[in-house]
Design goal:
The complex is a heterodimer of chains A (320) and B (261).
Chain A: E1 3-7, E2 10-11, E3 14-15, H1 17-29, E4 31-37, H2 45-50, E5 55-59, H3 63-66, H4 70-83, E6 87-91, H5 94-107, E7 111-119, E8 126-131, E9 136-142, E10 148-151, E11 166-169, E12 182-188, E13 202-206, H6 216-226, E14 229-232, H7 234-238, E15 259-263, H8 269-272, E16 280-285, E17 298-301, H9 304-319
Parallel strand pairs in A: 1-4, 1-6, 4-5, 5-11, 6-10, 7-10, 13-14, 13-15, 15-16, 16-17
Antiparallel strand pairs in A: 2-3, 7-8, 8-9
Helix pairs in contact in A: 4-5, 6-9
Chain B: E1 3-8, E2 11-13, E3 34-36, H1 38-53, E4 57-64, H2 70-79, E5 83-87, H3 97-111, E6 115-119, H4 130-138, E7 142-152, E8 155-161, E9 165-172, E10 175-179, H5 191-197, E11 202-205, H6 218-221, E12 224-231, E13 239-242, H7 247-257
Parallel strand pairs in B: 1-4, 1-6, 4-5, 5-11, 6-10, 7-10
Antiparallel strand pairs in B: 2-3, 7-8, 8-9
The chains are: A alpha/beta (320), B alpha/beta (261).
The structure holds flavin-adenine dinucleotide (FAD) and adenosine monophosphate.
């Protein structure tokens, strides 16, 4: 069976969930071969094997942490040359898309970004994308070279599918461009203890209606009662009430959870672009005319300062 | 020595309009009003600030697009850019990101540059890959997705806020930079700026000016193919209740029914 390369997004050996979803999709097309780079690369193997990786190609070098993007492109190109895969799948993070694009150009292949689904087709994998703020769904295919496709988080289920996952060292020689952009400092995000926004099954968001940084504790309390991640509209972020890393929408994160709860958010097109593919959508807004109500499965027209705390209490009571 | 800055800007259909696809499955650019992509205004702004802080600098705005795309150039000129280049050719219709990066790279080389400044993503395609592709083609450092940027003594520095960490980046010019909407509000064109823009030079180039063959670009030259585009069915109308004291409890009941609690 044809091999499919899967680029592994990991933090010091801990594999992030979107990569496991890619393994599920890769198995629809062929045999997943994972590529793990940088510090802790070999530590990813056990998890990847459990989820279907037949092989894990690893390479550790300080360049991956010291220079932007290009060292990873060099390595992925080396992997493509070693394996001659049927496709290359990369998680759709900002960095993932840049890596994938440069790889595609180098190997003379077309690129599809932000796929939300992937199937095998007669002429190669067919990717589903959600475009124009999720008002259209397209099906596309790479028509030249080895398809390079980036896939959004929450596009497939994580499935156990034990495979060999044998670790092999990848031979990489860095290009002249590899050391072009130096990373001179890095401040890791502080963990909030809440799920990762793009990976969470439930997202609870607050917008301008939350009316102040201190009031976001109401949104956080609801999120915690559901084990959810916290999101924010750009209006709330621009006002300085919540960090930009939590922004949902066109210029923030795109989320596709099982449940999205929008509180005090009007539902502007740029916000919808980042949440419209959520399975179930719920909104609390005091304006019955707010466009967010066009999207909801359940909406409450009311003051969030009344509705949200009551909801949180009720959830706590029901959960016991 | 003058710092030559090229800003790449895209003319896009208004996101608040009713965007759709044309019969050949390319983005329909006729039925919805177009404008300078809002995310490229941030690129123009940062380029102007970098130029203002340099001893001597020249800002050129560059777009690839149909006749109407001149509007995007005019807007950037009225914000303060010095001159503009419009790459227009019928054979460009349907060009994908890989092809766009080819045309941009050739045009940037022809124009001459020390620094390229791009937006974080176009508001229609939203791929966010063109700056990385242009850097790859030009063989210069990519310093992308910056929420803060500065240029001094031939070095570009910036802050990139990633998923896992916020990174400080540094590279030597020439380089390709892209900036996010966190980089600082874009200025509004002043009346004086709008008047001045009318006299600023706009050059028009076509594919032959850039030594690019028609087969390398356009819909037929694209390395990807859209096979189908379907409007997402409207979401089925949900239940909407008015809070009369029990709204939170009613919502909890709904969530329990959906097995979220
Ligand atoms: C290029 C570009 C990119 C953008 N990217 C993004 C993006 O990534 N994400 C994003 O979110 N936006 C983005 N925007 C901005 C977007 O257009 C909207 O301005 C923004 O989403 C509005 O945020 P909001 O809904 O919180 O605020 P508003 O539109 O002001 O809505 C606030 C809502 O809260 C309700 N409300 C007020 N008080 C209460 C209360 N006590 N109880 C209940 N409800 C209450 C109001 O009725 C209102 O509907 C972008 C814009 C542009 C031009
Ligand atoms: N047709 C175009 N003309 C000029 N610049 C473009 C064009 N397409 C993309 N760009 C630049 O590349 C950036 C990212 O675009 P994209 O990768 O399409 O999301 C934009 O913000 C622009 O700066």
């Amino acid at each position: 069976m044809a091999e499919v390369l899967v680029y592994v997004d990991h933090v010091d050996g801990a594999v992030r969930k979107p990569t496991l979803e890619l393994l599920t999709l890769a198995r629809r097309i062929g045999e997943p071969v994972a590529v793990a780079l940088g510090n802790g690369a070999a530590d990813t193997a056990a998890t990847l094997a459990e989820h279907g990786a037949v092989k894990v190609l690893t390479h550790e070098a300080s360049e991956y942490a010291e220079y932007l993007v290009v060292p990873k492109v060099d390595a992925l190109q080396a992997a493509v040359e070693a394996v001659s895969p049927a496709a290359v799948l990369v998680p759709s993070s900002a960095e993932g898309k840049e890596i994938a694009a440069r790889l595609a150009l180098r190997i003379g292949s077309g690129i599809i970004t932000d796929a939300v689904d992937l199937e095998a087709g007669d002429e190669g994998p067919v990717a589903t994308q959600s475009v124009f703020a999720a008002s259209f769904t397209t099906k596309s295919r790479v028509s030249k070279g080895t398809p390079v496709i980036t896939v959004k988080p929450n596009s497939a289920a994580v499935e156990a599918a034990p495979a060999a996952g044998s670790v092999e060292a990848l031979d990489v020689s860095f290009s002249a461009q590899a050391t072009g952009t130096k990373i001179t400092g890095r401040t890791p995000r502080e963990s909030t203890g809440r799920p990762e926004l793009t990976e969470a099954a439930i997202v609870v968001s607050g917008g301008r209606g939350v009316n102040g940084a201190e009031n976001f504790s109401i949104i956080e309390a609801l999120a915690d009662s559901l084990g959810a991640a916290v999101g924010a509209s750009r209006a709330a972020v621009d006002a300085g009430w919540y960090p930009h890393t939590n922004q949902v929408g066109q210029t923030g994160k795109s989320v596709s959870p099982q449940l999205y709860i929008a509180n005090g958010i009007s539902g502007a097109i740029q916000h919808r672009a980042g949440m419209q593919t959520s399975k179930t959508i719920v909104a609390v807004n005091k304006d019955a005319e707010a466009p967010i109500f066009d999207l909801v499965d359940y909406g409450v027209v009311g003051d969030l300062f009344d509705v949200v705390p009551q909801l949180t209490e009720e959830i706590k009571t029901r959960k016991g | 020595m003058s710092l030559r800055i090229v800003v790449t800007v895209k003319y896009v259909p208004d996101a608040t309009g009713d965007r759709h696809f044309a019969d050949d499955l390319t983005v329909d650019r006729d039925d919805v009003d177009g404008l300078l992509s809002e995310l490229d205004e941030y690129a123009v702004e940062q380029a102007l600030q970098i130029a203002e802080n340099a001893d001597d600098a020249e800002v050129t705005v560059l777009t690839i697009g149909p006749e109407d795309a001149k509007d995007a150039l005019r807007k950037a000129l009225s914000m303060g850019a010095d001159k503009a280049i419009h790459v227009e050719d019928d054979d460009l219709h349907g060009t994908d990101a890989i092809g766009t990066s080819l045309v941009l790279a050739k045009a940037i080389e022809k124009a001459g540059y020390d620094l390229v400044v791009s937006g974080m993503a176009s508001t229609d395609g939203t791929m966010g890959v063109v700056p990385a592709l242009v850097a790859e083609r030009l063989g210069v450092p990519q310093v992308t997705l910056l929420s803060e940027v500065s240029v001094e003594d031939g070095t570009v520095k910036g802050r990139r806020d990633g998923d896992a960490a916020s990174e400080q980046l540094e590279a030597q010019l020439p380089a390709v930079v892209s900036v996010t909407d966190q980089s600082g509000e874009a200025r509004y064109p002043s009346f004086k700026g709008i008047m001045a823009a009318k006299k600023k030079p706009v050059e028009s180039w076509d594919l032959s000016d850039l030594d690019i063959e028609a087969e390398e670009v356009g819909l037929d030259g694209a390395w990807t193919k859209v096979e189908a585009a379907n409007q997402r069915p409207a979401r089925t109308a949900g239940t909407i209740v008015k809070d009369e004291g029990e709204g939170g409890k009613q919502l909890a009941e709904f969530l329990a029914g959906q097995k979220f609690i």
